[in-house]
Fold this protein.
Amino acid sequence: MSVTIKSQKEIELMRESCRLLSIVHDELGKSLKPGMSTFEIDQLGEDMIRSFGCIPNFKNYHGYPASVCVSVNDEVVHGIPSKKRILQEGDIVSLDAGLIYKGYHSDAARTHGIGTVSPEARQLMDVTKQCFFEGIKYAKAGCHLYEISAAIGAYAESFGYGVVRDLVGHGIGTELHEDPQIPNFAQKKRGIKLQAGMTLAIEPMINAGTYEVVWLDDDWTVVTEDGSLSAHYENTVLITDGEPEILTLRRDV
Ligand code: MF3
Ligand code: CO
């Protein structure tokens, strides 16, 4: 598949899909507390998505069993919600969610601290979020895709962090995963030239230690190989001729 350029009408649908998802994330973030199970988070998220008349795009995606990926501490992404996994003070928890509105997908992730977290965990979360903002400095028409990748990687590595290599960001639209793939580290080539109307899910996944990850036997949960903490931050972004529009961040609050 090639990279799609969205029409004005499609951009409106993407905006609404992403606006609704930003509400889901804000509400989920507010609901987190020690003692809560990761299953409860998924239920809240799925109920909210359906209450908007939307479809959770992750549910049953290649067999994934939930609507929200909940990844705790050394879990990088794709943690499977469970009634047995209870959040504790000091945990960091990455929530990755998406939905379909009138055929258009949105995708975003946030990492939250439960109560007070260690200074090391706080820094990892802050740097991972900032990686996204460093990357999108190059998310505009005329720039090349891997300028985004290089900026994300350089910022993370300046803190000695490991940039996950086995998972990447992606184009998004009428499908959850469209071309192009968007690595979070420098590439040998400069990549495609960005054009107004592209919609991209940019998602740094950053480990406090090694960049190496392993898959658990559930075939989904990705964890850091060395057991170090990991954080994830993602938004769906619209490329324009000027500044990128961060579609999954609320501007009205
Ligand atoms: N947000 C994830 C991504 O960007 C999708 C989760 S995979 C799923 O690739 F199976 F959980 F849906
Ligand atoms: Co994504």
Observations:
- Residues 8-31 form the longest helix (24 residues).
